[in-house]
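Residues pack. Consider this:
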Amino acid sequence: MKFVVRHHDEDIAVEIERAGSAYSLKIGERSLNVEMIAANQFLSTLRLEDGAQYLVVHHRQGNAHEVSFGDRTVNLELFDPLSLKRTSREDQTGGGGTVKAAMPGRIVRILVAEGDVVTKGAGLLILEAMKMENEMISPRDGVVRSFLVQAGQTVEGGTELVIVD
């Protein structure tokens, strides 16, 4: 799987291949083999190929990830590279305040209700695509006029999702 990790406004290409409990990672130009064993939803043990072992705490909210290991905490965003082909996050709109799906996926949950007042950049709904949750955001300050989809619905790329006036 290919991802783009955004850390301190820098986009880094990441490729991950799984083989049992081991993973082959390519981070930028660096390659690394690791083993990861999940203890629960937030806690895992990570062993590097040199034998170094870390207890890793991971919290996720949408594309935002907070990863803590040792005495270090890293905050990053994880994206499907196709979603970044848009020139900006505002390109989620097809004109006006209509937010469209950037790629095929499933609507996981609706974050606001029709009639709610939202600000530009506020989360409207979560679209799961390629096993990643993508928060679709409001293109402008305004009022949520209507949802054109519902939670659980599968959509194609370009499908109109919500209108904000």
